[in-house]
């Protein structure tokens, strides 16, 4: 991908500008999301047009106009070329997902991780997905496991609306319940319900939500605790989980660290698959 964009722009950009060009980009449905470094900002239109012209699948080219931030982990986007819209549809392992990548968080890069979690689910399990966004985890788990029920909880109202829409789009999947609310108020949503497995895909901040999550996790239940960490500090992530469990009078019975992506060159997105007694 990187080579192709650079090749397409050879002659249009100077050697220095080509060096600065970030040739890789994310594709969410038919929207390409590029990063334009400061020093070649004047050429952003040219870059976007080249990308659009070289990829029939891409209908919109937008640039990151900031970083992921805020409680809802969203990112501002500016459209540079193509159609004037930010909504699109993604297919993840056959599951249809409508999404606006500016107003809700969704990472195409986590698809294999979601599929991995689904593959761990045993027959008849009751599952809670905290921070469920537009519902990719609930839908993938429903499609690829024999779970009994899957509850998703999300605070961003727009993400929740997309999640409901995505549930309708994949209407064969019947065992999902989606709630709009704050994971801190989990008890209000769950009452006396208890879960065999709780998924916590909110890297770096999941520890703050361990008290409510552990309250609803059954004894010997599975917790999937996400973090961003450098390999030499993996032990700290395990410690964070163990401390959170101890405070709730629970213990980590077993824990395995799975590397499931990158957030920076030497920083991994990790999932701790932990059995909690
Ligand atoms: C890293 S994203 C993961 C989204 C989704 N699970 C996915 O894989 O695409 C974290 C999500 O948590 C939501 N969130 C943040 N704080 C929350 C809270 N206190 N309660 C519930 N959801 C929250 C954000 O709006 C965002 O959708």
Q: What does this protein look like?
A:
With 277 residues, the protein is an alpha/beta fold. It has two domains: 2-86, Met-10+ protein-like domains (GMP Synthetase, Chain A, domain 3, 2-Layer Sandwich); 104-276, Vaccinia Virus protein VP39 (Rossmann fold, 3-Layer(aba) Sandwich), CATH 3.40.50.150. It has helices at 2-9, 15-20, 44-54, 111-120, 136-144, 157-169, 186-190, 210-216, 234-247; strands spanning 26-28, 31-34, 60-64, 77-82, 88-92, 95-99, 126-130, 149-154, 176-180, 195-200, 217-229, 252-264, 267-276. A seven-stranded mixed beta sheet has the order 9-8-7-10-11-13-12, sandwiched between helices. Strand 1 (26-28) and strand 2 (31-34) form a beta hairpin. Helix 4 crosses helix 5 (136-144). The longest helix has 14 residues, at 234-247. The termini are far apart. The model has no long low-confidence stretch (mean pLDDT 96). S-adenosylmethionine binds next to helix 5 and strand 8.
């Amino acid at each position: 991908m990187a080579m192709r964009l650079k090749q397409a722009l050879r002659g249009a950009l100077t050697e220095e500008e080509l060096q600065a060009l970030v040739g890789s980009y994310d594709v969410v449905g038919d929207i390409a999301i590029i990063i334009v470094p400061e020093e070649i900002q004047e050429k952003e239109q040219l870059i976007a047009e080249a990308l659009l012209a070289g990829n029939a699948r891409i209908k919109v080219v937008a640039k990151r106009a900031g970083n992921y931030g805020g409680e809802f982990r969203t990112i501002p986007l500016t459209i540079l070329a193509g159609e004037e819209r930010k909504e699109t549809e993604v297919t993840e392992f056959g599951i249809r997902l409508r999404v606006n990548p500016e107003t809700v968080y969704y990472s195409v890069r986590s698809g294999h991780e979601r599929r991995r979690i689904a593959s761990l689910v045993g027959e008849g399990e009751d599952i809670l997905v905290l921070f469920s966004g537009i519902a990719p985890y609930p839908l993938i788990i429903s499609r690829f496991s024999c779970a009994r029920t899957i509850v998703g909880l999300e605070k961003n109202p727009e993400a929740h609306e997309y999640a409901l829409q995505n549930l309708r789009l994949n209407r064969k999947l019947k065992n999902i319940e989606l709630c709009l609310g704050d994971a801190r108020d989990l008890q209000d949503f769950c009452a006396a319900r208890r879960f065999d497995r709780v998924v916590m895909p909110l890297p770096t901040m999941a520890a703050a939500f361990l008290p409510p999550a552990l309250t609803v996790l059954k004894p010997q239940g599975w917790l999937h605790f996400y973090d961003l960490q450098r390999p030499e500090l993996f032990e700290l992530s395990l410690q964070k989980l163990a401390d959170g469990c101890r405070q709730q009078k629970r213990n980590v019975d077993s824990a395995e660290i799975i590397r499931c992506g990158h957030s920076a060159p030497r920083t991994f997105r990790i999932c701790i698959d932990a059995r909690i007694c």
